[in-house]
Amino acid sequence: MMTLKIYSDSELDQGLKSNLEKFYNVERVEGDPPLTGLIYRGGKLFYSSSERGEIAFDFNQLWASHFNKNYHLNKEPLAKALGIKPSADSHIWDITCGSGKDAILLLKFGAKVTGFERNPSVAALLLSAAMNFNSSSLTIYPGEAKQHCELLNTATPSAIYYDPMYPEEGKKKSALPRKEMQVFRELVGKDLDEEEVYQWAKQSGVKRFVVKRGVKSPTLRAKPSAQYKGKSARYDLYIF
């Protein structure tokens, strides 16, 4: 089991510690926090980057940002690609959960979401945010989805959603992405196993596989079954 170091001068919240210890050996380190690493302060978990500053996830805040929005699923490119409908019980596997923003949007669409994140620091932030959000419709697992294939035997998802890191397009070279994305790129780097992920999804038994791309990015495979375009992203659907 991987060791997760968290720098803090106070004891970790017991609920957070217990949640993290399901997946990691948690080591609390006292003293001055490092320039880069996980920090627990004021009852909240942060990731500190020496170059970019600190980030933390807040699912309650994300949920509140959708509060006054009335989404029509038949007009939402992501919902259409994933096959989410008001009358259907949709269960989506978000296999690159990242900051959880898309996962919270999918909850707003009415879907149940199981999120996976292979970067340990990002996964810890997600687990902390999910604990504070306290929704029975959202579950987070550290690691890659293919490491949790036993879950397919108990609750097969209706679709798999894959959002690999891709370069930003259509912006001036001098315009940097916002801090959160900068930290993400520093943490996780590029996704170099897209073909491997595609082959795993194809063999998973799940019929619907959706890949998020930049509007002008090349497709993961030559011929998606369908494409759904939004203002800043495109969703390529593969039916197996």
TrEMBL record:
Protein's UniProt name: Ribosomal RNA small subunit methyltransferase J
SUPFAM superfamilies found in the cross-reference section: S-adenosyl-L-methionine-dependent methyltransferases
MF GO annotations: rRNA (guanine-N2-)-methyltransferase activity
Annotated organism of origin: Halobacteriovorax marinus (strain ATCC BAA-682 / DSM 15412 / SJ)
InterPro entries: 16SrRNA_methylTrfase_J, SAM-dependent_MTases_sf
Domain of life, per lineage: Bacteria
Organism lineage string: Bacteria, Pseudomonadati, Bdellovibrionota, Bacteriovoracia, Bacteriovoracales
Gene3D superfamilies: Vaccinia Virus protein VP39 (3.40.50.150)
Transmembrane segments: none
